[in-house]
Amino acid sequence: xxxxxxxxxxxxxxxxxxxxxxxxxxxxxxxxxxxxxxxxxxxxxxxxxxxxxxxxxxxxxxxxxxxxxxxxxxxxxxxxxxxxxxxxxxxxxxxxxxxxxxxxxxxxxxxxxxxxxxxxxxxxxxxxxxxxxxxxxxxxxxxxxxxxxxxxxxxxxxxxxxxxxxxxxxxxxxxxxxxxxxxxxxxxxxxxxxxxxxxxxxxxxxxxxxxxxx
Length: 214
Hints:
This protein is of the alpha/beta class. The chain has helices at 55-65, 85-102, 114-124, 139-147, 160-166, 182-193, 197-212; strands spanning 3-8, 19-26, 41-44, 70-79, 106-111, 130-132, 151-154, 171-173. Helix 4 (139-147) packs parallel to helix 5 (160-166) and helix 6 packs across helix 7 (197-212).
């Protein structure tokens, strides 16, 4: 049985052969060369760590994003707890267009900005998958986002009803910053879904295959 960890900032001291982790690189903070070459990555400009006008980071991201080890773009996003939302939106759209050109999924950090993200998605009409990571919203919000075509990724904290709404075809699981093991997250999800652990793990693997060839 294989476990997909769609988004993480942490690597365990000892790797598990049955876990596929997508390690997130924040442009300007970390580099592909800092880690073992066999790892798959996502890479993006996080709205918390924009430097200056972000142009230099965008140029650096273009160089990184073309590398085969980088499977996804992001986490990019919008965060209303941080200043200058229009500026954040400009950089987010640049990364969304990059993901589209490279035909790679987009991993999204979103805080209090679902209407804005939905408007951008409707306007850009992407064919690449958009995955909202660490989703903690209630099932009503989850269903609205799912209807708009987003995928939802769930971490240590979430509403069971939201996971149930996203299952089977538009859910993922992730550790993000959590110290919980990946199998533990899958076991919790299987209980929330009232499904066998192996079935949940297999479905996540199938969902990954679907967005990589989206």
